[in-house]
């Protein structure tokens, strides 16, 4: 059972375009994290959201946590080739230490 | 060191052999996690350690998998009698404490295991 569903699985766009990646679940999470992973490396944390409805901005990236804390989205404005990578969402559940990861969205931004 | 380190970076082994993967967490981090990432997939939780508490082994896929941690230091993940389906990248992460909502997990580069 995949607790966190990410979509789309693959995304190939041109430089300058906007995109949104979705992370959905039927379960409630106490926190939702977004990671970016490049080939041969471990995931690197981009942001953590913990409050329902929370919106965080990181330069051209906007992250939103759903009101019910079951879903999240990542929006990238004016994508650049440097944004290319695997984007992973991960949910945390209170005292449970491990994160539950989605399968990831593989983004390719062509110049 | 400045980050989480893992060794070896690559390991090729024959089916049926045992392998040991090592993780050195960030100094001062009390929590340590092991995940598995199959090709093109997300991360699958295996086990985590928090201080001197009993580890949470709920993600280990079979009794061929085990892990140990020496205090709040290095950890070793052991896979006995490896199978081809064990081929994956094994990632280690550490954090100050486990379970805190804003607690960041820092990942190592992973060990790519190939079972022939």
DSSP strand (E) fraction of chain B?
over 45%
DSSP helix count of chain B?
A: 0
Helix fraction of chain B, binned, reads under 10%
Radius of gyration of chain A: 13 Å
What's the mean pLDDT score of chain B? 91
Rg of chain B, Å, rounded: 13 Å
Name the beta content range of chain A: over 45%
Helix content of chain A: under 10%
Order of helices and strands of chain A: EEEEEEEEEEE
Distance between the termini of chain A: 37 Å
| Count of individual beta strands of chain B | 10
The outline of chain B comes out as globular
Main interface by residue count: A-B, 27 and 27 residues
Give the overall shape of chain A, derived from the CA principal axes.
globular
Number of helices of chain A: 0
Q: What is the succession of H and E elements of chain B?
A: EEEEEEEEEE
Main sheet of chain B?
6 strands, mixed
Distance between the ends of chain B? 33 Å
Oligomer: heterodimer
What does this 3D model show about the protein?
The complex is a heterodimer of chains A (111) and B (116). Chain A has 111 residues and is mainly beta. Chain A has strands at 5-7, 10-14, 19-24, 31-37, 44-49, 55-58, 61-65, 71-76, 85-93, 96-101, 105-110. Chain A contains no helices and eleven strands. In chain A, β9 (85-93) and β10 (96-101) form a beta hairpin. Chain B is mainly beta. Chain B has no helices and ten strands. In chain B, β4 and β5 form a beta hairpin. Chain B is globular and about 40 Å long. At the A-B interface, β5, β9 and β10 of A face β4, β5 and β9 of B.
């Amino acid at each position: 059972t995949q607790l966190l569903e990410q979509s789309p699985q693959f995304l190939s766009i041109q430089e300058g375009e906007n995109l949104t990646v979705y992370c959905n679940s039927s379960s409630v999470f106490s926190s939702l994290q977004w990671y970016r992973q490049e080939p041969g490396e471990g995931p690197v944390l981009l942001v953590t959201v913990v409050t329902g409805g929370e919106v965080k901005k990181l330069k051209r990236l906007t992250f939103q946590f759903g009101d019910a804390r079951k879903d999240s989205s990542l929006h990238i404005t004016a994508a650049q080739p440097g944004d290319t990578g695997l984007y992973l969402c991960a949910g945390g559940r209170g005292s449970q230490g491990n994160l539950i990861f989605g399968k990831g969205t593989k983004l390719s931004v062509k110049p | 060191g400045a980050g989480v380190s893992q060794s070896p970076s690559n390991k090729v082994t024959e089916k049926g052999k045992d392998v040991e993967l090592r993780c050195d967490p960030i100094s001062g981090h009390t929590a340590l996690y092991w995940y598995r990432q199959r090709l093109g997939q997300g991360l699958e939780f295996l086990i985590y350690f928090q201080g001197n508490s009993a580890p949470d082994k709920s993600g280990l896929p079979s009794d061929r998998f085990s892990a140990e941690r020496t205090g709040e230091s290095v950890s070793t993940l052991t896979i006995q009698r490896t199978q081809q389906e064990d081929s994956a990248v094994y990632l280690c992460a550490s954090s100050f404490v486990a379970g805190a909502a804003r607690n960041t997990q820092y990942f190592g580069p992973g060990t790519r295991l190939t079972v022939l």
